[in-house]
Amino acid sequence: SHSNRLSRFLPSSILYQEYSDVAINREIQRQQGKEPGHEEDGSDGTPSPSNLSPSSSFRSSRGSAFALWQDIPDVRSSGQLDNFSNEERKLQEAKFELVTSEASYIRSLTIAVDHFMLSQELAECLGTQDKQWLFSKLPDVKDVSERFLQDLEHRLEEDILRFDVCDIVLHHCPALRRVYLPYVTNQAYQEQTYQRLLQENPRFHSVLSRLEEDPICQRLPLTSFLILPFQRITRLKMLVENILKRTTPGSRDEDTATKAFNELKKIIKECNSSVQSMKRMEELIHLNKKIHFEGKIFPMISQSRWLVKHGELLEVDTQMMNISGSKLKFPTKPVYLHLFNDCLLLSRRKDTWKFMVFVHAKIGELKVKDLSQKLQGISGFIFHLQLCEGQQLKHQILLKSNTESAKQRWITAMFPSDPLEDIEQASENVDISQVQCIKSYKAQEHDELTLEKADILHAKTITGDGWVEGIRLSDGERGWFPKTYIEEITSRSARLRNLRENIRIKCVTQKL
């Protein structure tokens, strides 16, 4: 097999799930300015011993060392290491990590295909269609990755000291796109199929449990293998970005690294929008059956419409106040909001699955006033919403939520600030508050942001009940997430370096 050929260079016993965990934790340290030797790096580019000694090769939970490029016997015995500046060494390490991580990834993919997908027992309790949805084009992904690794290994063998990898990444991008796009697009079906099989097929459940207990899986479930291609393509972009950050400005290598980075970014964007448009359309079709309009024809399904946020709030009825003891009391009744990118619908629930819309308005014709001061006699978090038609007031309503974050999230969803301005503000070379994701978070609602470990974000709003609205520096995506998933980057020099790196990447990619 290709992946064993270079075992003297590449760690073979490590699964990708564990490899990426350790690598990402190291990246978090670096971005917070806490990496070993970070402060002591000589300004003249001489390596600080603590940063580049073999002992800094980080260890996995099972104690096996992950190989660093400088620890390879061929590199050590070449007598050339001292001729490399600190930055040059870091560049070679970044390139080497791309190769070793690909080897580790293929090891995990091989288990996914050989141990799970090709299992005779598993095949016997799956229909053809279920098997197709569950494993999709996994063997194709593995084939393309093996060819990719083979080219990387050849390059490594040719010149272990001064090898480059970005031209190889660029060359393989069309093949990567060919297999990753359908695999990632199928992910929604994959998840649904997996859940359904677990619930409805007891045999699948018992066979799967037995397969997962095999030592080869190292206690990892099938789902952690199925999600690998999605994680790998985003990780690959990050690895190329790390190489790009360390490449000499204006060099030919910078040009190649930038092209590779841009191609990977395009693939990821295509994957995301393909998944998104599929989900959005399914959601609209589903909602169309549930939402009813009183006597009005309202064409719900449209290619250019999607759901931004939905949920229940309480309408405060100021007309029906009563006095209980010495206190004013305002009765409330539930109202359901469906906010789309182009309009807002207010409805009452008829039963669990039906909504009767009593008023709607275009997004541009909404006005909101945040009543942050508690109104006498009303507890909770209140805002006043007006729905207009042209200049005419069509309907107004006093809405109440139970938490501060719920109120803030509704207001920002109805009146998002200009993302361009936000990005400009976050890209100016000025010190802005930065937070970093320390454990990955999967968005639960439409207005939330899925976070990957090591993402750096500008925190725009932090609510008293522990929610943050942030803008990711790398792509300008924005959304809400719980405060417990992030840590503030307190080192000013680390924040400025993160900004500088981000601006440099933006500049070179725009130049193309």
UniProtKB/TrEMBL annotation:
One Pfam family cited in the UniProt record for this chain: SH3_9
UniProt feature, compositional bias: Basic and acidic residues: 27-40
PROSITE patterns for the chain: DH_2, SH3
Residue segments, region Disordered: 26-59
Signal sequence annotation: none
Annotated InterPro entries: DBL_dom_sf (IPR035899), DH_dom (IPR000219), Ephexin-like (IPR047271), PH-like_dom_sf (IPR011993), PH_ephexin (IPR047270), SH3-like_dom_sf (IPR036028), SH3_domain (IPR001452)
Domain DH: 90-274
A GO biological-process term: regulation of actin cytoskeleton organization
Domain of life: Eukaryota
Keywords: Guanine-nucleotide releasing factor, SH3 domain
Protein name according to UniProt: Rho guanine nucleotide exchange factor 19
